[in-house]
Specification:
Blueprint lengths: L5 E5 L2 H14 L4 E4 L9 E6 L15 E4 L18 E2 L4 H19 L2 H9 L15 E5 L3 H11 L4 E6 L8 E5 L4 H6 L3 E4 L13 H6 L4 E5 L8 H9 L3 E6 L19 E3 L9 H17 L14
Parallel strand pairs: 1-2, 1-3, 3-4, 4-5, 6-7, 6-9, 7-8, 9-10, 10-11, 11-12
Helix pairs in contact: 1-8, 2-4
The protein binds NADPH dihydro-nicotinamide-adenine-dinucleotide phosphate and oxalic acid.
């Protein structure tokens, strides 16, 4: 029996169908299968998934790489992926555009006091607040990678005072750059709006907690579009209820969705969106997958390769 190089897609059936139509037109001699219909496991060379069914990867002896369907990889339970198997993440441009849009919207909502005005409207109140110029609003981004970097570039156009925080030192015009855990307090100290665009790793899990909130100035607000696991929900609720933090816009939660009785649902200082800040567009994602397969076949560096030692 002849073997056919196969990509196994685990996830949304509509995307799987589109990829099954498009990818063989982009990549010669490629077949696409939708999990759980994997055919002969020995034919699977490429695996693309949002989350992995437990044990699946160990049944695929010919795998050349595994790929996250998103920019983040934590949801794949990275520890279960063999350390020598290349792990890729989606770095196609529509993901970046979506995140820039979402964070810009959220920053402008906070900058223009929308959580306050929404609550006032519901209470039948008309109470204009003092206008603050963008230059007097200090916005900080945790994570200056593909997404955080693009967000900072776009926010610069509004004239905000900008800071960024990353693991390794950065130099970005117009942005006050901070690096490493020791620099975290200095990064946080003057911020009006804190944005989390970090990957979820052992170092960043639970980072958005009381010590961070205490270090932010009174009245600061939070945007979390990274992962729900970055946030200690009870610490955020305490900071909001005490009035120390003014508002939070959360696109990600832990778990997703939140249980029906979770206080975030109805908290007047919290705006929730259901993990929609940025979505991989199936058609451009197919082109990214094709590029990765071409690179693999040609022995070239693979796009979106995750540094397994760093975890992102
Ligand atoms: P990148 O890997 O490109 O960038 C990650 C950034 O975080 C880098 O600047 C990195 O520092 C920094 N970082 C990592 N660990 C630490 C640490 N311990 N301390 C300080 N800085 C740290 O990731 P992306 O920008 O592509 O994506 C970020 C995350 O956004 C994803 O992992 C995912 O969780 C989330 N996401 C959410 C979406 C949504 O819809 N809500 C959609 C897409 C992604 P350095 O530059 O030094 O390496
Ligand atoms: C991602 C996401 O990681 O959508 O791409 O959260």
């Amino acid at each position: 029996m002849s073997s056919v190089e196969t990509l196994l897609h685990v996830g949304d059936a509509a995307r799987g169908k589109l990829w099954a139509e498009q990818l063989p037109t982009l990549v010669p001699d490629l077949s696409v299968r939708q999990w759980p219909d994997i055919g002969d496991p020995a034919d699977i060379r490429y695996l693309a998934a949002w989350t992995l069914p437990p044990g699946l990867i160990d049944t695929l002896p010919g795998l050349r790489f595994a790929m996250s369907i998103g920019a983040g990889v934590d949801q794949l339970d990275v520890a279960t992926i063999p350390p020598n198997l290349p792990l890729l993440r989606m770095t196609e441009g529509t993901l970046v555009d979506g995140m820039v849009e979402y964070v810009t919207m959220a920053v402008l909502m906070l900058h223009r006091d929308m959580p306050h005005y929404l609550a006032e409207q519901r209470a039948g109140l008309w109470s204009p607040r003092r206008h603050v110029a963008a230059a007097d609003r200090h916005v900080g981004v945790m994570g200056m990678g593909m997404l955080g970097g693009a967000v900072l570039e776009r926010l610069a156009g509004f004239g905000f005072a900008l800071s960024g925080w990353s693991r390794s030192p950065k130099d970005m015009p117009g942005v006050h750059c901070h690096a490493g855990m020791a620099a975290l307090p200095a990064f946080l100290a003057g911020l009006d709006i804190l944005i989390c665009l970090l990957p979820l790793t052992p170092e960043t899990r639970g980072l958005l907690a009381a010590p961070v909130f205490r270090t932010l100035p009174a009245g600061a607000a939070l945007i979390n579009a990274g992962r729900g696991g970055h946030l200690i929900a009870s610490d955020l609720l305490a900071a909001l209820d005490s009035g120390h933090l003014s508002a939070a816009i959360l696109d990600v939660t832990d778990p997703e969705p939140l249980p029906a009785d979770h206080p975030f649902w109805h908290h007047r200082r919290v705006l929730l969106t259901p993990h929609v800040a940025s979505r991989t567009d199936p058609a451009s994602a197919a082109r990214f997958v094709a590029e990765a397969i071409f690179s693999d076949r040609a022995g070239l560096p693979l796009p979106g390769r995750v540094d397994r030692s760093a975890g992102y």
